[in-house]
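May I ask for a single protein's sequence together with how it folds?
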Amino acid sequence: MKDKSIHILNFVGLGFFEPAIRLAAGEEVKKNLIALFRKVLLPVLSVGLFLLLWHSGAMVLYTIEKDARIEKALTERGQEAADLERACIESNGKDCKISTLPTPSQVWSAYQSLLADHSIISGKKAAFLEKVSATNEKRIADGLDPITYTGRPSFVDQIWTSLKTVFAGFLLALFIAVPIGIMLGLSDTLRSSVNWLIQIFKPVSPVVWLLLVTMIVVTVSKGSDGDSAFTISFISVGLCSMWATLVNTTMGVSSVDKDYINVAKVLNLSMSQKVFKIILPSSFPLIFTGLRITLSVAWMVLIAIELLAQSPGLGSFVWEEFQNGSSESNSKIIVAMFVIGIIGFLLDRIMLTIQKFVTFTEETV
């Protein structure tokens, strides 16, 4: 049981909990206590230190902004106005709240507020769908589109939209980059012929890809009722992020051991058999490294692309809260920042686990 638990933790990239499992089994107590302190307790302490520094920094900025506003009131309107400004700030009045870096407790409150808001919106959506269910059944029977809920999406809804967009973009990148990478890896002539094209397009900004894709999609989809914002977003994400997979696939295929290729020739394998039985299995470690990078890049550029394409995801959420400019908005932006980072970490762990299933490597970074 102990060894199985350790194997599972290492497999999913959570090997730092291994000392805790060994301690629970009574194995080498002193050694595993030290390992547990270094791998688990020190990171926990660093989180506590980070929160303390964050709170202290937020309070310093709050004090600076508070003193500046009181000093401005004193200079422009006199002592009485300065006293009123101080009293208003200290009472946390709505009209004189200080908008600066929020404290950890304010961010936590914003997180709870967003979850409560999601519950309210979900309730409204469920009530709406129940109300129009009979009408929708009749419309569907008549060959018409059902009536859909068009209210404001919640924060959780926007997370799901972003995940849907990034996975669509990732799949697009995979289906473009892997086949092209295999072809380039198999042919030195072809690889040298188009390498200049890869080197030119690889560093192009996501904003440029977005503008190019927008021009094409808007032209092609004129008169269509499809979700053009989603289409523009996922295609832009795919084109921005596919280059790591393309380069790594090309490298992986071109560096396959020549002995394997010679064995394929001796066995008279067809090209498809050679690709699927020899070249791809040998190239999987590099291909999956490229796919992990691609997914990370896709998640990073997604926020900017959603913001510009007006797709209702996390990018739009961050931009709307930034434009709002209130202290609560600052807290919600920090919540979104942590959600983006945590999801990015989980996506990388998922890709690492899939890579181990497919390639049987022991990579743990």
User: Anything to note?
Assistant: The two ends are 25 Å apart (CA to CA). The chain has a mean pLDDT of 83. The CA atoms of residues 16 and 39 lie 6 Å apart. Residues 29-77 form the longest helix (49 residues).
